[in-house]
Amino acid sequence: MPELPEVENTVRILRPKVVGKEIVEVEALDPKLGHVPQNLTLPARVLELLRKGKYIIFDLGERKLVLHLRMSGHLFWTHSLSEISKHTRLILRFSEGTLLFIDPRRLGTAEVVEEFSEPLGPDALGDLSFLDEALLKSRAPIKLWLLDQRNIAGLGNIYASEALFLAGIDPRRPASSLKKREVAKLKDAIHRVLREALEAMGTTLEDKAYRTPEGESGDYEPKVYGREGLPCLRCGTPIERIELGGRGTYFCPRCQR
DNA sequence: TCATCCCTGTGG
DNA sequence: CCACAGGGATGA
After folding, report:
1. A238 given a catalytic annotation
2. Does residue A118 form part of some domain?
3. Which of A55, A140, A184, A193 has an alpha carbon within 20 to 30 A of A164's alpha carbon?
4. Does one domain contain both A209 and A173?
């Protein structure tokens, strides 16, 4: 579900609710997450709430609680215990409210660590000038290169496809084959897609899955992702779906070369 | 650099 | 029933 825009909005909405506040009780409803309450000392004050790539980090001083929503996770802020559904995996109780980690597919993760140390590339919302040189070093298809969080952090299956559409680049092209001018367009496209999605509060496919912590769905409408067979919004050619690295990949065969 | 796996749910 | 799903770790 969540890529950079969804995670960033989640963090922005939660910050005023949890920063400076104390976690007073933690409960794991999924045995896979049983280590979380064990490894936390309560109460624990949240000094900062951070996003690194698609990770959400609760800075608790000596320790950090690191969440990753993976495919189907989301966080939900509530005051009512009746909101606890069967997909709730972790409950963080604050005096001011309760944060639920909901995750139907149970692929999401929660770790308690002393230092965050995932090998992430530069943030996709930040300065992208490193792409000029970095792309030259890889012959991987550009879309797979963009999905590898060690190269650039934050893009996922939707926005990688969307950025390549905006930039007019075929997702199968080797990263090193992009011309300077194309890399420039790609940098611009990545920022444009992410900023638009951020403003729209992310993407909620088929009116399900992704929600902000306050239950809102996202309004971003992908231009190619999930639109196999439908006309390209720019030229009318049917959008194609192929597989790259085992993931569905959508593009316009005419606009993207 | 691939396939496979981790999980569960939904839709055709 | 099968295909597919917004992510990522792992092992060949």
Report:
1. no
2. no
3. A55
4. yes
Rounded CA–C1' distance between A229 and B9, in angstroms: 25
Instruction: Label residues A187-201 b or e (16+ Cβ within 10 Å = b).
Output: bebbbebbeebbeeb
Query: Does at least one atom of strand C sit less than 7 Å from the CB of A158?
Result: yes
Token pair for A164: 């390549």
| A57 pLDDT more than 70 | yes
Quote the domain boundaries for residue A70: 4-113
Here the CATH number for the domain that contains residue A75 is: 3.20.190.10
Torsion of CA A81, A198, A108, A22, to 10 degrees: -50
Does residue A126 lie within any of the structural domains?
no
Mean pLDDT computed over every residue of chain A: 95
Contact between the CB of A137 and strand B at under 7 Å? no
Q: How many domains does chain A have?
A: 2
- Nucleotides in chain C with any atom closer than 7 Å to protein CB: 4-9
State the pLDDT confidence band at A26, using cuts at 50, 70 and 90: very high
Residue A137 maps to which CATH number? 1.10.8.50
The tokens for A221 are 């409408």
Tell whether the model's pLDDT for residue A104 goes beyond 90. Answer: yes
Residue A74 lies in a domain: yes
| Cβ of residue A206 lies below 7 Å from strand C | yes
